[in-house]
Amino acid sequence: MSRISQVMYEEASPELQAEYTRVVELYGSVSNMKATLLHSPVALRAVLEWYTLFGKVKPVLGKRLSILFCNAISRENACTLCTTYMQKEIVESGEDPEQLQLDDRDTTIVAFGRQLAADPNRVSGELFDKLRGYLTETQIVELTVFGALMIVNNIFNSALQIDVDENLSAYAIDPDIAFSGSSHFHHDKEAL
């Protein structure tokens, strides 16, 4: 059960009702995470910049690899809510999350995401050189901040134990299995 209540539109101040309406207009609904973030419009807006950067990263990586990057970060951080959301995206795209096929570019991006979450001080020169082979400096900057905002989402959802949204229940992950340390990514070359 979530440690912080969700802001309910009917009970909110006029300022928070306006924010709530803005979220619905921009994103179609108010998830449990967003309803909790509504306690602070400043915090909400900061976290929602994830969507702005997703709009920058997606044309470069494609939606699939952008989601796999976020999934790698969320799994590394053992964030049940975010991993469940990414699982939904993977399944709805027609893939089996347990049997993903990754080429070298995919493997590089996923490894970078995992390392950002595990310890950004230890991004190896080899991994960074491979990343540089696929992305421009601007793209690397945007991908890194996008990953950092994914980590913010993970921390927020995990520390405050935000409940998994009801519409994600069909995709719910078992944390004991999902975060056991085994990788379900299959690729042509060894991970970096």
Compact description:
About 65% of the residues lie in helices and about 5% in strands. It contains 8 helices and 2 strands, in the order H-H-H-H-E-H-H-H-H-E. It has a two-stranded parallel sheet with strand order 1-2.
Structure description:
By secondary structure, the chain is mainly alpha-helical. Helices cover 63% and strands 3% of the residues. The protein starts with 13 loop residues before the first helix and ends in a 5-residue tail after the last strand. The C terminus is likely disordered.
Based on the coordinates given, report the CATH architecture. Answer: Up-down Bundle
What is the fold named in CATH at topology level? AhpD-like
Main β sheet profile: 2 strands, parallel
By DSSP (H or I, 4+ residues per run), the number of helices equals 8
Along the chain, the helix and strand elements come as HHHHEHHHHE
CATH superfamily: AhpD-like
Instruction: Name the beta content range.
Output: under 5%
